[in-house]
Design goal:
The structure holds two protein chains of two kinds. Chain A is built from ten helices and 15 strands. Chain A is of the alpha/beta class. Chain A has a single domain, classed as Peroxisomal Thiolase, Chain A, domain 1 (3-Layer(aba) Sandwich), CATH 3.40.47.10. In chain A, the strands form three sheets. In chain A, strands 1, 2, 5, 6, 7, 8, 9, 10, 11, 14 and 15 form an eleven-stranded mixed β-sheet that branches. A ten-stranded mixed β-sheet of chain B has the order 3-2-4-5-1-6-10-9-7-8, sandwiched between helices. In chain B, helix 1 runs parallel beside helix 2, helix 1 packs antiparallel against helix 13 and helix 9 packs across helix 10. The chains are: A alpha/beta, B alpha/beta. Chains A and B meet through helix 3, helix 4, strand 6, helix 5 and helix 6 of A and helix 3, helix 4, helix 5, strand 3 and helix 6 of B.
């Protein structure tokens, strides 16, 4: 079934860099890390940590903003779609949304109304993790399969994996994969409680790293098993991946990185390649002490002395939780299209315990296979393989 | 290869074990057949910690009630097995609403007037996928672990994905469940999930252990039944029960020829007129209803379908479970219950007495 070539046909993205893939690509190529203080979210943190949030002028907060964000990213992806008109609304196109807690923002509004400090002037809809998918399907009159994946920080990576596998099995012709996560008081307060926030921004794999930098994003990738109308050779194809569960602890990886190593190995196996075929690794690289340690151990076990360049995106984009799968896949493609693989922002000092050093200087992009890691709470680990042609 | 929108050509999968817990923590296996109690009022969020502690002693004490519900259901499914689920078993957990109570608690904590930092343990355990994590931990599984949602069709979607993974050999076995919990007050619950004023809110956790139907596997342990097909359909092109029934029958013919004596099972979001319209097109069909026992909640179908395998001596029958979501999308599940006495099956040889004893212990401890 791997003979089916799953191309990334179009992308729509909203991130801290603004709207659209060009903004994301140019921002990362220029080494820009748009960090702003997390103020005005309804819950005071002192000092306000730096986060990666949408430019303030773009959207309203709360439910209305969440709807705008979702639909704008989807509209971008639809506008860039190069296949047949109407194909994305047909019964053989799936919509798969991945989100760990995108509804935090709108649910916060619900409670604001409930306790009376926000006006209760609109009716509420049925709630649940599926809310975003139902909204998109209704607005765009989509008739294909719908699914929402809610597996924490690997949510949209799993959504991509499911989409690729459905395409490889020939069950559908196209898949619209959406990763979405909003900034919320609950998320920030929760990570702060766990002492996992780095208030100054994250430093993946750095000796002095202390935690994550929360971000928000909506990223949409349209996957297709069919060539575009222009019949050009696709530049980015997703070859497959794997998902495993590390039952060591709710919020901490097995220290030896064993399950992380296994999920990477299985992903390469599914893509029918070996570690030697990987030209670079987009690490999960949150900047948290334990997670980076486990990931570094897993990388060393699998790749040994032949470790390819390790990329770390979260200083540029924030940890967008359930959206990071689709956002960072989109970001990698954006950078490759721009002809670069970006240096790991936020990294300064090698941690002797980790024994790995992420890419220090931006390089020219190479064709070949890229391994992408996405690891979440609940031991939910996903690795994907992207081929750049 | 064939597009799924046209026909379901996947091979059937076997049901090796089934179980679940319903409102009030009632284990399906504790109350078989007609003994299963009718729900007489909305389910209430009774504490499950004592039951969960008995069923899964290693489960973290900080697990949310939603996660406890999930593990209780999964343990009810797996407990009768003589040997643990295979390490390659994948977990697919469907939920319509996710971990509502834990999330609610976080909001009350963080939002005005309290405006306090959420307790770390409560935040860490509030993720929708934590329930599936605890299920994998309970069953000692490191394989794929997915938490999936599609409103009232969440369990059907999980089952559909599992069926694809099993039929292509990607998964060697699948533990597929549906879990949703009740929350109070009713006014808040019904904002999230529509339940009419004359209907009762339920909760539950229903699970199936599935594997590819094979003679080799059957020689080791006879199957309890099979899932022979799942179809997920878009909204019908025109409104009304007749149009919906036509769509269901067209899809059913793509799953298996309609046969006399099919048992028709209504999901929680279907309406009586719709079910009557489908029944009228199925010769000599029988009806089976689980909603009076389970109450209404988004993944009631998981408990209802698992409940088909709960009696110790079920009658062999072919079943069609029909359900839909609020937007009019439909989910069909074709089920074969093989019948016979489970107490003679090698896999569940010891379960008749031990399972009941264990279940009684759980119920006693809860009371």
């Amino acid at each position: 079934m791997n003979d089916v070539r799953v191309r990334v046909a179009s992308i729509g993205v909203l991130s801290a860099h603004g709207a659209g893939l060009p903004a994301l690509a140019s921002g990362m190529a220029a080494g820009i890390c748009p960090l702003t203080a997390a103020t005005g979210i309804g819950f005071p943190l002192d000092p306000a940590p730096l986060v990666s949030r949408f430019p303030q002028s773009l959207f309203q907060r709360g439910e209305a903003g969440a709807v705008q964000e979702l639909m704008q990213a989807v509209d971008q992806a639809f506008a860039a779609w190069d296949g047949q008109h109407g194909a994305l609304a047909a019964e053989d196109c799936a919509l798969i949304v991945g989100s760990g807690g995108f509804l935090y923002a709108s649910t916060a509004e619900l409670y604001g109304r409930t306790v009376g400090y926000l006006p209760n002037d609109t009716a509420f809809k049925v709630r649940g993790p599926h809310w975003g998918a139902a909204l998109i399907a209704e607005r765009l009159e989509l008739r294909g399969p719908l699914l929402t994946v809610s597996s924490g920080c690997s949510s949209s990576a799993n959504a991509l994996l499911i989409g690729v596998e459905m395409l490889q099995r020939g069950e559908i012709r196209h898949a619209i994969v959406v990763g979405a996560e909003g900034l919320s008081a609950v998320t920030l307060g929760g990570f702060d409680s766990l002492m996992l926030l780095d208030a100054a921004g994250c430093r993946p794999f750095d000796r002095d790293r202390t935690g994550v930098q929360i971000g928000e994003a909506v990223a949409v990738l349209v996957l297709s098993a069919e060539p575009g109308v222009h019949a050009e050779r696709p530049r980015a194809t997703l070859r497959g991946g794997a998902n495993l569960c590390d039952t060591h602890h709710l919020t901490a990886a097995s220290p030896d990185g064993g399950v992380m190593r296994n999920v990477m190995y299985e992903a390469l196996d599914k893509a029918r390649i070996t570690p030697r075929d990987v030209v670079a690794i987009k690490a999960h690289g949150t900047g948290s002490i334990d997670s980076d340690r486990a990931e570094a151990a897993a990388l060393c076990q699998l790749f040994g002395a032949a470790l390819p360049p390790v990329l770390a995106f979260k200083r540029y984009l924030g940890h967008t939780l359930g959206a990071c799968g689709s956002l960072e896949t989109a970001a990698l493609i954006a950078c490759l299209q721009a002809g670069i693989v970006p240096a790991a922002a936020g990294f300064n000092t090698i941690d002797p315990e980790l024994a790995i050093e992420p890419l220090r200087a931006t390089r020219a992009a190479r064709a070949g296979h890229y391994l992408l890691n996405f690891f979440g709470f609940g031991g939910n680990y996903t690795s994907l393989v992207l081929e750049w042609h | 290869m064939q597009l799924r929108s046209q026909q379901d050509t996947r091979a059937k999968v076997h049901v090796r074990a089934a179980g679940g817990v319903g409102a009030g923590g009632v284990d399906l296996h504790a109350c078989t057949g007609g003994e299963r109690p009718f729900l007489r009022a909305d389910a209430t969020p009774e504490p499950l910690r004592a039951m969960a502690g008995l069923a899964a002693p290693r489960m973290s004490r900080i697990a949310s009630r939603f996660a406890q519900l999930a593990v209780l259901g999964a343990s009810s499914c797996l407990r009768p097995l003589d040997s643990p689920a295979s390490p390659g078993t994948r977990v697919y957990l469907g939920t319509g609403l996710g971990d509502v109570a834990a999330t609610d608690a976080l909001y009350y904590c963080v939002m005005p007037p309290m405006s306090e930092a959420p307790p770390p343990a409560r935040f860490a355990t509030s993720g929708n996928n934590m329930a599936a994590f605890f299920v994998s931990q309970y069953a000692q599984l490191n394989s794929r672990n997915l938490t999936l949602s599609h409103a009232e069709l969440s369990f059907e979607c999980a089952l559909d994905l599992a069926l694809s993974d099993l039929s292509t050999g990607a998964a060697e076995a699948a533990l597929v469940g549906g879990v949703d919990e009740t929350t109070l007050p009713r006014e808040f619950y019904t904002r999230r999930f529509p339940v009419a004023s004359d209907q009762l809110i339920g909760e539950g956790s229903g699970w199936l252990l599935l594997d590819p139907a094979s003679a080799a596997a059957d020689a080791v342990a006879p199957a309890l039944g099979a899932i022979t097909g799942v179809r997920l359909l878009p909204s019908p092109s025109s409104p009304g029960a007749a149009s919906w029934a036509t769509q269901v029958m067209d899809a059913l013919n793509g799953l298996a020829p309609a046969r006399p004596g099919l048992t028709l099972i209504a999901g929680c979001s279907t309406e009586a007129a719709e079910i009557a319209a489908v029944a009228a097109r199925l010769p000599n069909c029988e009806h089976y209803g689980y909603l009076p026992h389970s109450g209404r909640f988004p993944t009631a179908s998981a408990l209802g379908i698992a409940g088909l395998f709960a009696p110790r001596s079920p009658t062999a029958r072919s079943c069609l479970h029909v359900n839909r979501d609020a937007s009019g999308r439909t989910g069909l599940v074709m089920i074969e219950v093989y019948g016979g006495s489970w107490s003679t099956a090698p896999m569940v040889r010891k379960t008749s007495s031990s399972r009941r004893a264990h279940s009684n212990n759980i119920c006693a401890s809860e009371s």
